[in-house]
Amino acid sequence: MTIDATTRTGLCLAGVTLRLGDGDDTITALDAVSLTVAPGELVAVVGPSGAGKSSLLAVAGGLTVPDQGSVTVDGSDLTAMKPAARTAHRREHIGFVFQSGNLIPALTALDQLRLIGHLNRRRTGTRDAEQLLAEVGMAGKAHRRPHQLSGGERQRIGIARALIGGPSLLLADEPTAALDRARSHEVVELLARETRRAAVATVMVTHDTDVLEHCDRVVEMVDGQLSG
Ligand SMILES: Nc1ncnc2c1ncn2[C@@H]1O[C@H](COP(=O)(O)OP(=O)(O)OP(=O)(O)O)[C@@H](O)[C@H]1O
């Protein structure tokens, strides 16, 4: 399926500051961070432990509201929304990929996707589960449960599940953390391909410098600040 990128605006973080903790223990997790990711672009975020990478994903995904700045996903500022509207916008426009797939143990690969498709059934962007499974190279294993799949295969299903609602923003948190080198390359190549094919703006946090070659851009977080 090809999606028209011109109708999308991707992700825009402008002057985002996030403070965490209280009193003397307050730290600035994000310090005036600005980042734009276009539809069809895969941006990697690297940086040392504690630099603020997870905080960046939490803010971009509308899970945490920053103290200052704006977070615009597909034209709407998440920081200006009431919590219910933010949750609805997240469900409709944002997909998440986790470290190890986070699949439901009892469900087959196909049913993992169908469940999300069912929850999204009133949405116009929802994609066909079988077609998406084929797209991520898993058509032949549609009826297997997670324990019957390899780590790389589970992650392919995790990516397909994140895409089934037709999101405009995909946020991936260390998607290769549980994979060997060869599988890591395959999974990030898949992410890059789907990012372009689905015209989604993708942000991937990673410690894996090996896979950066598949990304359009690499930015670095250090002490809550972004460079690159
Ligand atoms: N709930 C919280 N309360 C207070 N401080 C927090 C909280 N969550 C995270 N922090 C602090 O915010 C800073 C940024 O954390 P964050 O998890 O975003 O870093 P990270 O770059 O993702 O680290 P890692 O690579 O280890 O996952 C760290 O100093 C962390 O200790």
TrEMBL record:
Pfam families, per database record: ABC_tran (PF00005)
- Protein keywords: ATP-binding, Nucleotide-binding, Transport
Q: Which GO terms describe its cellular component?
A: plasma membrane
Tell me the leader sequence span.
none
- Where does the source fall among the domains of life? Bacteria
| UniProt keyword Nucleotide-binding, yes or no | yes
Q: Which CDD domains match?
A: ABC_MJ0796_LolCDE_FtsE
Domain (ABC transporter) ranges: 11-228
Gene Ontology molecular function, alphabetical: ATP binding; ATP hydrolysis activity; transmembrane transporter activity
Which PANTHER family does the annotation name?
A: ABC TRANSPORTER RELATED, IMPORT ATP-BINDING PROTEIN
Name this protein carries in UniProt = Putative ABC transporter ATP-binding protein
